[in-house]
Amino acid sequence: MFLLATLLLMGCLAHQEAIAQQIGGFQYREIADYSPYDDSRSFTPYQDSIMELLLKSWDEPQIIKKELIGGVDKNRILKHEKRDSVEAFVYENDQYNDILNSGIFVAYSSNSGSTWDYYYTGLTQDAPLFVKWYSKYPLINAEGNVQIEACLSSGKGYTHWPMWIPQVVKDGLLITFDLETLRKDSDGDGLTDIEEARLRTDPYNVDTDNDGIPDNLDLNPRCNVPRTDRTSVYEAILNENMTIPFYDIEDPLTIPFDEIAESHYCTDTTKTVMIVTDDPNIRSIQPQTQRVIFLTTEEFGDPKAYNPGDLEKLRVTSFDKQEDGSYIVHEDYSSLGYAYSVKKTSKGWVIKMISRYIE
Fold this sequence. Notes:
The protein is α+β, with helices and mostly antiparallel strands. The protein contains seven helices and 18 strands.
């Protein structure tokens, strides 16, 4: 009997530890009077109405007006509430996630919506949480913190167009987002500790790569690698340089060897992507349109390290030399892929796009 009780206790503790690990450092408790997960309510009523308009637009044009709350599209808001002078909502955002799994953010106002603060929770809708917009629990608790009822999913499931149906492993969780935890910025660089964990930057160092650009503004915050003669080629490709011509349309683009990209900086809405590579020619780039988190293959494969998980993955190959002395470079972003031909001349690198494909 003692052995059985011990095993049950160990199983319970392991279960609680698994939940805590997926939820992060936030308080949670299991509740008995929860609203059971209902896959027919995956979309909020507002999202359902938008979907109806989109479906109708196949037959007849529809004017869809974007409605905003606190500067955020209502289509992205999962739950919204006002309590005295406090107004808050939980919403989805793809800034730190891929296009299939949105990050969960909290918007909070203590002055009836006159000004807003926006916080990343580090969690992902449907993987591992599903936030229930139909919960009867208030969004703002008695202490003024934000709480959500959710269920825990395995990250697996199936697609029932246009919905993703998660595989629920634990229902009836009430999670509290302590505002101090959400706001914590140990080094004062403008990125919260939760954001720095996602980006793999140092939460105790304003400038992780010591390049003179603080982490919150740096579009390549983890790598300070000397430029090479190939850096400008990768910059043209990764910065979505629309001047790169398709091979059978125009003359190819020539990039001088000493070309240095104009400095660009992050904003509060800059998209973040991840590239896994050991190639210093790629790691030395100065991005323009998005923040790039570079990981070495060792860092990416380290099971003990924090997994950035749902960051959008971008793949760029090293120069692949051809028989005619030119090189081929491939770029894959989400389901889109591109191939470029690159050749070294006396005037610089000559580059042209040779194929586009959808995976």
